[in-house]
Amino acid sequence: MYLRAVHVETHLPLLRELIRSNPLGILTTAIPSPNFPLLQSSHIPFVLSDPDSTSPVSSRQNEGSTVNSSSSLGTLRGHLARANPQSRALIEHLASAPALPGSDAKILEQEVLVLFTSHAHHYVTPKFYTQTKPDTGKVVPTWDYAAVQVYGKLKVYFDSRSEETGAFLQRQVEELTEASERGIMGYEQPWQVSDAPESYIGLLKKAIVGVEVLIDRMEGKWKMSQESTEGDAQGVIDGFAALEDPVAQEVSRCVQERRKLAEERKASETKVAAKP
Prior knowledge:
By secondary structure, the chain is of the alpha+beta class. About 35% of the residues lie in helices and about 25% in strands.
């Protein structure tokens, strides 16, 4: 990911929040195969598990382009249709690979990428640049957005006869359903996997493959007009706020929040630099 310093976000709880609020990620693999394309991508709703979920994280990571810590970043769990060409490439590639010790699952040796994008993104018209446009006219359109890229190793559960695979898939679909029914739909009495006939769920589980990304690093980018002048940024904030569109209004709030955060960070850095 192209990361200018002004757009970088390394605050781990915020990266996790974006993923949980926008769980439909794009899983990309690069698997050499005589039968399938090298690069394949699939949209998959993921469940993020992290070892810090029971204890609050109060401090920010050191500023930088990437959050690295394989022991604390957790995992992403999802599933693919077994008929998906990406699944078939995975199974073909891993068929002869040794299973993990004490497990039926197998690890893909190549790194994988999962991309999550916030639903709050929008085209930015030059008409919003109320300072630079009338002064010089040297303005062009852009796009404001926030995204997190996750990198790691892929653990694949594809042996449909394995109890471990069955247990992984059962847990994954139950937790994904619970998170979606409550977090997305807002139901106090959510639909549950157990509401469907057990034999039907068992049949569907044989038609999917479990995937688990063991996270090695995460990159966060919040491109929210931070590089604009004060006058242009205010024009962006006001311009989006005036649109009768909930997404545009949310982008307006995000631009405002990121400028406030940048000011707070600058003040903090100045305070630290002033200490003897």
